[in-house]
Amino acid sequence: MDLFTRDDLKALLAEHRWPCISLFMPAHRGGAQEDPIRWRKHLTEAEDRLVKAGRRAAEVKELLAPARRLLDDVVFWKNQSDGLAAFLAPPLEGKGEASLRLYRLPLALKDGVVVADRFSIIPLLPLINSNGRFYVLALSQHSVRLLMGTRDRVSEVDLTGVPRNLAEALLTHEAKEPFSFFGRRTGAGAGSWAGIFHGHGVGIDDPKDELLHYFQKINTGLHPLLSEEGAPLVLAAVDYLQPLYRQANTYAHLLARGVDGNPERLNSTQLHDAVWPLVKPLFEEAQQRAAAQYRQLSGTGRAAGDVESVVAAAYAGRVETLFVALDRQVWGVFDPTVGRVEQHEKALPGDVDLLELAAVHTLMHGRTVYAVKPEEVPGNSAVAATFCLPLPKHGK
Question: What's residue 195's pLDDT?
Fold first, then answer.
């Protein structure tokens, strides 16, 4: 599975040359014959849209070439997760091959082909925002697994730089290598990945020290994956390993409560069932607080549930928290010079999804977006937003 991070989101939100092509489809773990067939249909649809938009057939074939080559990649189709997302755009300098970003995700994505002046990101928001993304570290002396989860499932993350087991961690410990343990920091430095030195020596003779060394290497190896994350991490391990790993851990969002027992005996579904009750209250609490704030601010000028007000405020950087309904589109155009929105029942040439537009500008200003089921949007609308307090005037 490919890890989708906030850095990936920033890259997708960056400016790209037209056309930006976003492809979404469900997939099957381990692969299925229908997956490349579905992919081919998506490419054909994208090709048709580009030709209708005025692109020459030769240009379209060149643009889609990196994605089309995957049709013959047997290994790629055998290593799928629950959903596949792909993003194609011409090279920025106008030369070279089109850029292609691929993500195999633990999310059952719905089929979608979007050709626009920016990438479509709403289908991926449940993986990046605070309404359902978490990690599970399944740890034993014999194996290490990191899984990324949503409300529906967990999928294993490819690990590099992390020892596969205790024996491998001890094998790579050189005789003259300084040996240090990591300690959980408190106060201003909490969450830092810096180590606390406790001495060094040749070899590791004490079984507890062996385990601490093993956990130290795991903690260090997880740094590139989790250092920019704010998602909860749940530890699944036998009871006597739990306090030892917590001594080595420096990730600020490791939950105090873990899953006791040998995780080697649990498959992905069983791990999800054991972990979800621990993280679900965290997500529900944050989302419910945001929805309650919306209801409290309704009618005060600091909240709105109509598309025109929300899009204009998002573009101006005034949206603090945004709710958008998944699987909904509101087509139209936005004129930023006067802040005017024009909605259409069906997509017309030049239209954009106004919900997507509001989400993009909210994220670009570093604010929070909840992409949720339609019934979870407060106010019974396709969109709902609370606004930031206006900045005080100079001298006041």
Answer: 35
Domain boundaries, given as residue ranges, for the chain: 6-120, 134-279, 298-387
Distance of CA 328 to the CA centre of its chain: 20
Place of tokens 């603090």: 320
Question: 298-387: same fold as 6-120?
Answer: no
- On whether the CB atoms of residues 107 and 24 are closer than 8 A, the answer is no
Angle at 354 between CA 351 and CA 359, to 5 degrees: 135
Average model confidence (pLDDT) across the chain: 85
The single-letter DSSP state of residue 226 is H
Q: What's the CA gap between 8 and 16, in Å, rounded?
A: 14
Contact 241, 140 (CB under 8 A): yes
Q: Which amino acid is at 279?
A: V
Q: Is the pLDDT of residue 186 over 70?
A: no
- The pair of structure tokens assigned to 47 is 């090709």
CA–CA dist 38, 24 (Å, integer): 10
Segment 235-241 shows an average pLDDT of: 95
Question: Token match 């670009």: residue?
Answer: 364
What pLDDT shows up at residue 366? 84
Percent share of the chain, pLDDT over 70:
86
Determine whether domain 298-387 maps to CATH 3.30.1330.30: yes
Nearest to 321 by CA among 272, 374, 363, 263: 363
Coil/strand/helix, residue 371: strand
One CATH from 3.90.79, 1.20.1260, 3.30.70, 3.30.420 for 134-279 = 3.30.420
Instruction: Render pLDDT for 155-173 as a digit per residue (tens, 0 to 9).
Output: 888 888 888 888 888 876 5
Tokens read off for 16: 């790209």
The tokens for 349 are 């040439």
| CATH assignment, 6-120 | 3.30.960.10
Nearest to 67 by CA among 32, 37, 98, 109: 98
pLDDT confidence of 188, banded at 50, 70, 90? very low
Placement of tokens 């300690």 in the chain: 183
Cα(258)–Cα(256) distance, rounded to whole angstroms? 7
Whole-number pLDDT of residue 132: 67
